[in-house]
Amino acid sequence: MSTLEIVTKEIVDLHEFFTEWFNGTADRDQLGSQFLSRLDENVVFIPPEGHILTGEMLKGGFDRDFGTNKDFRIQIRDVTIRREVGDLVMATYTEWQVGATQSERENARVTSVLMKMTSPVTWLHIQETWLPDSARDVGSFDF
Fold this sequence. Notes:
- By secondary structure, the protein is an alpha+beta fold.
- It has helices at 3-23, 31-34, 55-65, 133-138; strands spanning 39-46, 53-54, 73-85, 88-98, 106-116, 122-130.
- Helices cover 29% and strands 38% of the residues.
């Protein structure tokens, strides 16, 4: 598989797990193996609101929010490799959400991610930014 195929599969698979987790259809014992094990011990996640979250903070939020959103869905689009340096890859993608309860019910964001191409892939840094209305308005939330 190409780097783009590996990165795309990693991103899509992880977000499918997020959907199952928040829907309450995932096995609650899978949080570690399906999500936390993919994060570097020093991972930083910056959501669109701009605050910084650590891996421990993400774990706490996920533990608390299991099964809290039965209608939540995510679609990943536009995965693009921006840079490859050694075993590090910087990629961007857009994430479209329907049924969100902690943000606008229909929302979209662009995400930049730094990954280490290990087996499994390791997420080092994630930053999300809201897509502007002009980009959201030409996209579809029909998925």
